[in-house]
Amino acid sequence: MGKIPDVEKETSDLHVTKDHAVVIVGGGFAGVAVAKRLGRAGVDVLLLDQNSYHQFQPLLYQVATSQIAVSTVARPLRSILRREREHVSIRAARVDAIDAANKTVTTVDGLTYRGRFLVVASGAEPNFFNTPGAEEHAYPLYSIDDATRLSSALLGALERASATRDASNEQAKLAVAVVGAGPNGVETAGAIAENIRYVVAKYHSERFAAESCEVHLVDMVDTVLPPFSKASQKYTRTQLENLGVHLHLGSAVSSVSATEITLADGTTITAGIVIWAGGLKASHLLGPAGFTTGRGGRVDVNPDLTVQGFPGVYVLGDTANITDAKGRGLPQLGSVAKQSGNWAAKNIQAELCGKPRSDFEFLDMGYMAMIGRGKSVAELTPRRYQLQGPLAFLAWLGVHVMLLSGWQQKIGAVVSWFRDYLSRSRPQVVVHQPEVYEQTRRHGPTTEPGGPTGD
Fold first, then answer.
1. How close are the terminal C-alpha atoms of the chain, in Å?
2. Which of 43, 173, 359, 376 is deepest in the core (most CB within 10 A)?
């Protein structure tokens, strides 16, 4: 490709520590893909993320339900980009502000970085839709911290319910409500229900597991898995009900408290733990950065993934509203983020060499969701070839192994799934955060402000 020219220095009253050819905000699928491809091409890249590791978000619910270990979904960014370390710098810092016009990024420690190109892939945040009590009492599931916090809360609530029942209180229950019947909510509800039926019984009495635990799945739409076909929706609904999940569809959540949720139709559901899978919104950094935001608070990007009015700025992944060749909006999936990252890197390389950019071409692999052990749905390729049951389960396993970063993570996931499928044992069941365990005993999660983690 040839030597990349040095970035031209510009006079500015900003405190810029160093200029780079490319500054990337977010170490998720999109940001890592950009950094890896450009680093291999010899481009000077700075990657900023609040964490020093990449987190595999599609499997966070399995961390929360103790199916896989944290190390399976977390991999150090410096390990992922070790072959590109000569050209890719990594800084673990929380981003405080982005200036899209000047292509600068300022971190909370007051340092500012500028790039000839700016790539914003800062991920998303839970969208509670201003539901009273949701942000205070519900558990989101979008980061490793979220997953370990929820894992500890579930274990704490289970121990509390078990101890109360041992004290001859027959009314003691572990009640969990999952808000959102999309793929994330369905997978989470199915995993928890399966735990109660098959795993908890190994560690507690079977009678306690069967009679004293409830899982509810709630959504304002009247079906599960809205993007899927009616056949997949019907299969999913049947499998969830077979696992004992109580479905409450067609009515929105109007409020959440420490002990229950209330629906718009007046229904009240007792739930000591509420898991929020009801939607995401783009990072709060986008509006102040100067971008005009659209659906979901995301930035509407051009077909080549740049932003109108901001030369040299790319917005990717969960931060962007990306369309396909037919103008249809693409979903917020890891495959979209990863492919958009590779395409943006390709366009940046073209610009650096004085060549024109090209429009993003998305390779549609389809949709899939796992409901439980050997029970999945998959609709593959743009033709939406439908699979259900064990074949869909194998397809789900194959795709997720392919997307995982690193052989250690891939092998760890396969070993965990194989052991879980054969024995239903969970050797990684531990309380990760004792303070959350204690907090759950008093009913209610702890909440901390989030930041961009990438997607």
1. 28
2. 376
Which of 48, 45, 87, 112 is CA-nearest to residue 348?
45
CA-to-CA dists, residue 250 to 130, 253, 369, angstroms: 19, 10, 21
- Give the DSSP letter of residue 132: T
**DSSP-based three-state secondary structure for 412:** helix
Reported pTM: 0.89
- Burial classification of residue 66, based on how many CB atoms lie within 10 Å of its CB (0-12 exposed, 13-18 middle, 19 or more buried): buried
Return d(Cα 48, Cα 176) in angstroms, integer.
36
pLDDT at 46: 98
DSSP type of residue 6: P
Q: How does DSSP classify residue 329? A: B
Q: Which residue in 84, 187, 194, 214 is the catalytic one?
A: 187
Active-site residue, 435 included? no
The least confident of 230-234, 290-294, 434-438 is 434-438
* Cα gap 153→150, rounded to integer Å: 5
* CA–CA dist 10, 18 (Å, integer): 11
Tens digits of per-residue pLDDT, 300-345? 999 999 999 999 999 999 999 999 888 889 998 999 999 999 999 9
Instruction: For residue range 394-448, list pLDDT tens digits in order.
Output: 999 999 999 898 999 999 999 988 887 777 666 555 545 555 545 554 445 544 4
Beta-carbon contacts of residue 411 (< 8 Å; ≥ 6 apart): none
Q: How far is CA 3 from CA 6, 42, 118, 259, 344, in A?
A: 9, 7, 20, 61, 19
The DSSP 8-state label assigned to residue 195 in this structure reads: I
Q: Are 112 and 104 in contact (CB under 8 A)?
A: yes
Neighbour tally for 122: CB within 10 Å: 35
72: which 2 tokens? 């399976």
What values do phi and psi take at 167, rounded to 5?
-85, 15
Residue 61: which residues within 8 A CB-CB, separation 6 or more? 141, 147, 184, 187, 188, 191
How buried is residue 364: exposed, middle or buried, by Cβ count under 10 Å (0-12/13-18/19+)?
Answer: middle
With H, G, I as helix, E, B as strand and everything else as coil, classify residue 219.
strand
What one-character DSSP code corresponds to residue 44?
-
For range 253-265, the mean pLDDT: 96
Short-list 367, 293, 289, 320, CA closest to 99:
289
